[in-house]
C-alpha cells in the first residue's frame, strides 16, 4: 500500500473524490496497531473471536470492514448486521443465512442451528471462517445461541462491534472474562498519531500546525477526521503549494454535508424532549445541571446520560459529550429558534458576571451573538478579555461589536480591540483604535487601567516604524499624568504605585525590544527593582525580562538559573496566562543562547495550544521556533521540513514579523545540506522582506543569513559576521557577538580567533567555554583544547561544531605526529561525517600514507592470515612481510593485528 504516492497527484486528476471514497484504506493507515492486534487475536487458537468497542461514529464499521478484507482470501468471512427489528425476530441477526436453508431445516431450533452451521462450513470450503457482526440493535436469543455454538465448536470465530462490552448478550461475558473473546477498543487519536497518519496519507510536508488544526476540528475522532480531510480536499481548502500542505484560514469542519447528515440522523433518532435539550446545550455550550433538569425534566436528563449524549463536568456543569454534534446543531438552528431557547433557559434577566466561569462566560457571549442580540457592555468587555487570553482575537472583536461609547468604559473597549487587531497583524487599525480615545475618556480611568492603556499604545507604536520615536515622550507624559492624578484625587497609594510599576515595566520591555539589554540588567538589578518586587505578577514579568537580558549580555548561566526559579513559580497564583506566555517566549532565547536546543524543542511543544483559534494565530510561530532551534544546532536536514512548513504558513498569515527570520533560517538549513541554489533563493527572499521586528528576531535573521552566505562560500560573509559581532560588543551583547564570531572564524585569521577567545572569556556556560577552547586551540595549535571543545560540543549535541573541533584537532595531531590522537580523532570524524551533511571544516593534512604494498599486506593481516600465508600468497619472503607490517604499525600507531580491521 503506497499512500504516500498520494493526494497531490490524485487531486490533479480529480482524484480527491477517489480519496474521499476510500474509507477502508484510510482506516488501514489510522488503525494499523489495532488491526494487527485484532489479527493476532483471531489467529490465536485459544480465541473465539474479538469485540470491537468504541463510541458512536468513531469508525467501528470501517475498522471491521478493513479487518475482514485484510483476512482474505485465506479466511472466509460472512458479514452480518443486526437491526433493531432483527433483535426482536428469531435468528434476525442471521437472516441472510436463514434465507438459504431448505424448509425442513426450519422445522425446529435445533435443525435451524445445524443448517446454519452446515451452510457456513460449506461456504468456507475448508478455510477458517469468521462471522463479522454489527450489533447496533442487539441480538435475539436464538442468534446468540447459534453464534455461541459456532464459536465453542470451532466452526467459526466472531468479530462483533458494540459501543461497550456491557452491550453484548450475557452469554458473551464469560468468554470475555476468560479471554476467549478479546476486546479491541478504538480510542480517539492522539495528536502525534494524527500527524503521522496525515503525512503518510497526503505525502509532501504536512505542517504540525495543520495536523493539529485538523485534529482539533475532528476532536481526535479518526472517522470525522477522514470526512473533514476529504471535504477540504474537494473544496480546495486543504491545498498543496511548493510541497507544503496549507489550510485555508476560514476552513470550518462543520461545513461538511456528510458530517451534517451523520449528526442529523443521530439527533432525529432521539425523543422530541431530548432533541430540544440537545438544541439548548448546543447553543449554551454549558448549562448547570440543576437548570437543565428544571427546564427539561429529570427523566430527559437521565435518558441523555444513559445514551452517552451529555458530559457532567466540574461545578455540575453539563455539556454535550460530542463537540462535533454541538457545532453542527448550532449551525442548523434558525435565529428565532436560538432566541426561543435563550428565553427558555435564561429568561429576561442576564446572568451575573461573578457567577460565570470563563467557559460559561464565553458560551453565554457566543450564544447571545448567535441570537443577533447585543451583549451588555460589562459582559462584552469581560468576554472579550477572556477570548484574548485564550488567543481568539476574532471572537473578542465580535463580542465588542455594538458596545456603546460610554466615557467610563470606552478606553477599555478600544484597548481590547487594539490588542485583537495586533494579534491579527493589523497594526494600523490597532493604533487607530487607541488614538480615537479622548483625553476626557482617559481621565475617567483609574491609575492601573490608565497604565494598561499606555502599555497597549506603546506596543501599537512599537510595531509601526514611523511611530517608534513617540514612545519615550508618551511614557514621560504618562508618568506626569499619574503624578497629577495622585495629587488631585483620593486614589489609594497602592494603585498609583502599581501603575508606576507597569509603566516602568513597559519601558524595560521596550528596551529589550530594541536590544538594549545592558540598561535593563542595570535597572532590574539596581534600586529600581524594588518598585516591581512588591507585586508578584509584575515581579515575574520583570524577571522574565531580566532572564532574557542576562542571556544576551554574557551571563548565560545566571539567566538559566533565573529561568528555573521563575518556572517553579508559574504554577502559583502569580503565574497568570500572560506571565506564562512571556516566560515561554523569553525562555526560548535563554535556552537557545546556552546551546540547549533540545530543551528549546521541548519548550516549544509544551507551549503550543490546541484550540483552533490559538493554533491559527500562533501555530506557525511555534513551528518557526522549532526550526530555528534545529538550524542553530546545525541540524539542517531536520530543520528544513519544519522551516518550509512554518514559512508556507507565515506567508499565508497576517503577522509578518518572523517571516524574514524564517526565510534566513531556511536558507541556512539548505546551506548546511550543501544546496547553494536553494539557499540563494531564500536569501533573495530575505533581501526583499521588510517588516518591524524586535532585536532578538532581527539578530537571528542576520546571523542565519550571513552564516548561509559563509557556508555556500559567498565572499565577504565572514567579514560581515565579524563586523556585526563588533557592533554587538559596543552594546554589551557579548553572547550574540560570541556566537557570530564562532561562525565567522571558520574562514578568518588569528586576530578574529583572539577576539573570539576574549569575548568567550566574558561569558558563562558550556557554549562559551566551547568557543574559548576552540579559539585557543585553533590559534595555538593546542590539541587538549580542541579535544575539550569537541567533548563540550558532543555534550550539547552540536554535531556540526563537534566535527569542526575534531577536524582542526586532527590536523594538529597529524602535524605533531601524534599518531594515537590522530587515529582517535579520525574515527570520531568518520562517525560525524555520517551525521553532518557538509563538514564546516575539512582536515588539510593527509596524515601517514601507506604504500600500495603495505596496504595489501595490511589487508591480509587484518583478515587474520599468518605472516607465512601472506608471504606465500604475495610471493614475498616472511622477513619482507614482517618489515612491511612493522612500517604499517608504526604509521598507524597500533600494536596488534586486531586493531587493523577498524582502520582499513
Give an account of the 3D structure.
By secondary structure, the chain is mostly helical. The strands form 3 sheets. A 5-stranded parallel beta sheet has the order 2-3-4-1-5, sandwiched between helices. Among the domains are: 3-21 and 190-255, no CATH class; 32-185, Rossmann fold; 256-333, Arc Repressor Mutant, subunit A (Orthogonal Bundle), CATH 1.10.10; 781-847, no CATH class; 852-899, Winged helix-like DNA-binding domain superfamily/Winged helix DNA-binding domain (Arc Repressor Mutant, subunit A), CATH 1.10.10.10. The chain is flat. Helix 9 links the parallel strand 3 (129-134) and strand 4 (157-162).
The tally of helices reads 49
Radius of gyration: 35 Å
The side-by-side strand order for the widest beta sheet comes to 2-3-4-1-5
Morphology call: flat
Any idea of the CATH class of the domain at 32-185?
Alpha Beta
**What is the strand content?**
under 5%
Average pLDDT number: 87
Please provide the count of β strands: 10
Instruction: Report the major sheet.
Output: 5 strands, parallel
Helix content: 55-70%
Give the name of the CATH superfamily of the domain at 32-185. P-loop containing nucleotide triphosphate hydrolases
The CATH topology name of the domain at 32-185 reads Rossmann fold
**Low-confidence regions:** 1-17
Q: In whole angstroms, how far apart are the ends?
A: 42 Å
What class do helices, strands and sheet pairing give?
Answer: mainly alpha
CATH architecture annotation name of the domain at 32-185: 3-Layer(aba) Sandwich
